[in-house]
Structure formats: structure tokens, C-alpha cells
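REVIEWER CHECKLIST
Item 1: Sequence provided? yes
Item 2: Single chain? yes
Item 3: Sequence as submitted:
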Amino acid sequence: MSFLQLLLIICILIVIPISLGLAYDSYKSVSEEYNSNFDLLKNNTEQSIIETLIVVDKGLTVYDEGLDDLMKKGFEPFLSAYDESEGDLSQVDLEAIREGLGEDYNLYVIDETHTITYTTMATDLGLNFSYLEDFSGFLDNVREGYSYVGDRVVKGIREEKTIRKYAYYPTPDHRYVLELSYDIDEDGPRKFLQYSRTIEELKGMNPYLTSVKLYDIFGYTIGEPDEPDKELRKFIINNVIGEKKSVTLEDSAKGTFTDYRLVNLYEDGIGSDTSLAIAFTYDENLLEDNIASAWYSDLLNIAGLSILLILILSIFCIAISRPLKYLVDDVDKIASGDLDHQIRTGRGGKEFAHLEASISNMVERLKKTISKVRESEELIKRQNDELETIVASRTKEALEKSNEANFYLDIITHDINNSNMAALGYAEIMLDLSKEEDRSIVKMLISAIHQNTDIIRNISLMRAMKNGEKDASLSPVNLDNIIRHAISLFPLKVAYEGTGLKVMADKLLEEVFTNILGNSIRHAGSDCEVRISVTESGDDVRICIADNGPGIPDDRKEECFNRYTKNLSGRTANGNGVGLFIVKTLVTERYGGSVEALDTVEGHPEKGLMICVTLRKA
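Item 4: Structure as written out by the authors:
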């Protein structure tokens, strides 16, 4: 990046967090303001509607009380008939009394158990008010009294459509309460004092208020054609009317919540409780939309201010970086080889002028240094030519000496092998001719000769691998022939079933098995028993050679493949410690396989060692 780009990025990285901080503060402020206004408007709306309903109820109370004179006159024939029957209600013809009063009237007789025993309203016959504790107490007070008691205009418990004015009068013997009802025309004067009309007029003052519903003490709606379901009625009766407290329910799916508020209109001495439950439903989505709209407006202002600030800072950065750009251009020309190019001075203030002078001084010194370097290069070149001549001469001399040493080593190896074979033959003759007490010494001599032979073979093998045969090409080799020939070289008890598999190897593969078998017999002794298994797995062939020797502890198994490692089992054995090293070198480096040391009996290192070799299948 250029210096100008870095400056611009730094300015943007400064402006962006500030802008984000302003945006966050703006959202928080707008959200708090709208939520505060929402709560204030909600409380004011609910309180206004509740207070208005209370005023309407007072008007309805005046209207209801205005019907008391009419109701008192209705009781005159009702009481006369009861007196004439001397308290025997079976002798009272309630239907005849109703015909005399008019079809808008209905008569009821309530006994001491708060049950309607006689009535002209068939749907209310047998209705028991005992479950209404307050109303039952009211009826007891009326029965024990001596005068007329007027009630409010309300709906009946079982007949839910018609509204009626109710009134009560005790019988002279205080055995019954006589009840009289009068049907009210809903289109009459009382319609001007309806709750629903008042609510519709006030609901518009709160845009978040989607609906306002009224419920009576029995959970039925007032002024609404639809009645609530059973669960909602139960909730209103128990949690709002019964507990006499406000409750809020949220509907997260619709993004709304409903406040249930109680309007307590109950009056002592009045039988009917005209208290109301009001359900105020608010749309939170509209509130969130208003908050988002206001915040988007602030966000646009912040974005515009941020862009303007970035533009101003960009102009400032360009002005700062311009002298540096000129300086960079001059330095680039000098770097391209024009050391005589002059630095343009006097741009960007005193600091840049000082920098330009320093660069000019540096260029002059660089010219001198380059001159000296060129002289040094000529000298180094001459010395390199001389050194290459010396190295070539020494290399040729070393190669000649190496070939001479290898020639003598081959002669020595051949002669020692011939000598060992002769010594081995004489030793075996001595073994046959020796006395029993001398045979152990002869066996030790034979073992030493075998060890010398192993040493010579291993040295020859390592020389062959080191001198270029390591990279010999591989070809399919009959694995069974190699294994059986290796077995024939040792006096061992071997369990081997044979195999028809071929592997990718060469003539040195036999050395792998001879070294493993030689390792087994050295550590397990004359009682050595070996088991050889061959298994096929995909593109690989796995050969495992297990003996019954002392084995190797688990924590030292990897060491057995290191050069010159001996006596890992703790038992003294002859050997130079390179046999398994040669095995690993041939298998991994020459044949691209793998080798590992395991227990002959898993979990029991002391019961023998198993060497497993994995080779590529031909």
C-alpha cells in the first residue's frame, strides 16, 4: 500500500467507530424516547377510558334508579297474591300476575337456599346463587329486611342477550325473596350511555391501540357480537375479576400485547356487580416501525456527516502525502540505476528537505561503495577460479584414493571370507572329534566365526548401499524363495507355511530376513524357535518373524533399529548392533516399506520379540 492509502485507511478506521458510536447512541436515544412516550400515552389512554367508563356508569346508575318507582308498583300485585295464599306459593299464579303487569315483566321466588323455586322465566328455574358469595349475602339481607331494594340494569346469568332492571322485596314472613325484572329496550334512551360508543371515541387518541374490549364479571363481552372462548373467560374471571388486579399477556407471534385492567364498579347494598374488565391490545410492531423510521433518519444524517468528514480528511491526506510521493519517485529512479538523478528539494517542509539531503548524501556514498564492490568482485572471481582448479585436483586425487581403498577392501573381504570358511570347516571337524567336555568351547569358536562372517557381510552390504546400489530399480521378487533360502542358513526350528506372493524388491531382500533370523538366534540361543507368517492387505504384504527369546521392553522397542544398539533385553548376546539397523534401512529407504517391533505374546515382552516388515505387493 502507498502512504496515502494507509493514511486514508487510518482516517476511515477512526471515522467508522465514531459513526457507529453515534449511530448506537442515536438508536438508544430514539428507542428510549419512543418507549417512554409509548408508556406515557398508554397510561394516559387507559386512565382516560377507565375514568370515562366510571362517568358513564354513574349516568347509567341514575337511569337505572329512575326505574325504581315502576318496579315498586309491580310488586303490589305480587305481594297481594302472596298474602292471599298465606305463604303457599303453589296457590300463587305467577303467569296471571305477569299478564296483569305486562309481557316486559318476569317474576321470581328465591328461597333460603338462594335457589329460584318459582318463576315465569323457564330458563332461570332452579338457578342457585350460592356460588356467588357476595350476591348470596345480598339476598340474605333482603330476605331479613322489610323494604324494597332496587338493583341495576344487567344481563341475566342464563339469558345473555336481553338486559333487565332487577328489584327485590322480602315476604312478610321472611321465608322468600320476591324478585321482579323488567326488560329494557336497548334502542331506548339508555343507548346514549353505551360503553362501546365511549371507547370508540377515545381509542383514536392512541395510534398503537388496536382494540379495546369490555367484559362483565362473568367474562362475557359487552357491546361485541363475538364471545370469548372458555379459556379466556376462565382467565378473566379468575385472574382479573377474581384477583382484582391488572394482568399483561404478550403474543410474540403477532407482535402485540394486551393489558387487562379492572374497573371496580361494585357498590354496597346493590345486588349486581357491574364491575368491568377492559382488554387494551397494543401493536408493538408499529412502535418498532416508528423507532426504526426515526433512527433511519438519524442514521442518514450520521452517514452524510461521516462521508463529508472522510472527504475532508482525504484532501488533507493527499496534501500530506504529495511531497512523499515526489520523494519516492526520485528514489525509484535512483534505485533503477540512475545514480546521477537529482532529488527534488523544497517540498513538504523542513523535515522533507532534511530527508532529501540525507538521501543525496547516501547516494554519493553508495556510488563509492559500488566502485569498491566491483573491484572486490574482480578479485573474488579470480580467487574462485583458482579455488575451483584446486578443488577439482583434490577431488580427483580423493576419488583415486577411494577407489584404491575399495580395491584393497574387496581383496581383504574376499580373503577374510575364504579364511572364515576354512576356519569354519576345521571347527566343525573339531566339533565332531572333540570330547564332550570340549564341545562347548568348539561351539563358541564356531559362533565367533559366524559372527565374523556376519560382520563382513554387513560391511559389504553397507558399502554397496552407500556406493550407488541404493538407487537400484525394484522388480517383482518371489517372496517364498527368499524366505526359505534365508531359513536354510541357520540351525533353527522354524514354523513357516510358505506363500505364493511376490513383492517389489531386489537381490538385497534376503539380507532383511537373514539379519532378523540372525538376531533371533543370537538372543534366543540354541533353543530358539521361530514362527514366520505372511499376510496380504490391499497393496501391501506383511511378513512377521516371531521368536521365543527374551524380548525387548515396550519403552525400548524403537531403539532396536538404531545403529550399534545392543542388549536391550538385558541378556548378553554376541553381535555388532547393526543387523536391525540394516533391516530398517533396506525396508524403509530402499523398498519404501515399514518395519516395527512387537511382542510375540501381546502384553508379555519377556516371551519373545516379533519383527514385522511391510513391503509393496508386486
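Item 5: Key structural point noted by reviewer: The first helix runs from residue 3 to 65.
Item 6: Recommendation: ____
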